[in-house]
Amino acid sequence: MSKSTPGVRYAEIYRETSETRIQAVLDLDGGTRRDIVTGIGFFDHMLHQLSFHGHFDIGMAAEGDLHIDDHHTVEDVGIVLGQCLSQALGDEPIERYGSNHTPMDEALALVAIDISGRGVLGFEVDWKRDQIGDLSTECVREFFRALSTHGGMTIHIRKIAGENDHHVCEAIFKGFGRALYQATRRSERRGSTSTKGSRD
């Protein structure tokens, strides 16, 4: 991956705060390389699913204050991923919208996104437990909230069915990856993808 290669939708972000240190690289048109280490095993698994179903290459290395809890790390990874997506897309004409229903065994999630330039999150998921592995379920919403804000996306996520929180969470991350892939395809439409004359 190289920023200088023509046509490559690539981003590289480094973010450091008193709570986290995160290095990320993203290639929206890759799809075979995933190197993700956040210190939160189940979160790594979910990000792997997101990138696999989103068909993009990602490198994500995060060090955070996990001795306190997982909140800062999960939220800041969302911030950085959103910044990477925004940087990689730039002003390129894209399809903009993506949506799907994604099943995972008995679970079913609806994910719909609009890469609008506006950060809005609708999140309707009721969890049955506080943690899945080492990931706090309340942090799933915080991840997508940060991603929507810093990626300039409207994201709607709704649990349609599901008894097993692992399955519900996996359906959400896979579904978001699938919707993101749809929305980020290069558009054949001439001019803006909005009647306003700009993406937002």
TrEMBL record:
The gene is hisB. Keywords: Amino-acid biosynthesis, Cytoplasm, Histidine biosynthesis, Lyase. Pathway: Amino-acid biosynthesis; L-histidine biosynthesis; L-histidine from 5-phospho-alpha-D-ribose 1-diphosphate: step 6/9. It is found in: Cytoplasm. The keyword Transcription does not apply. GO terms for biological process: L-histidine biosynthetic process. Its EC number is 4.2.1.19. This is Imidazoleglycerol-phosphate dehydratase. It is an enzyme of class 4 (lyase). It comes from the Bacteria. GO terms for molecular function: imidazoleglycerol-phosphate dehydratase activity.
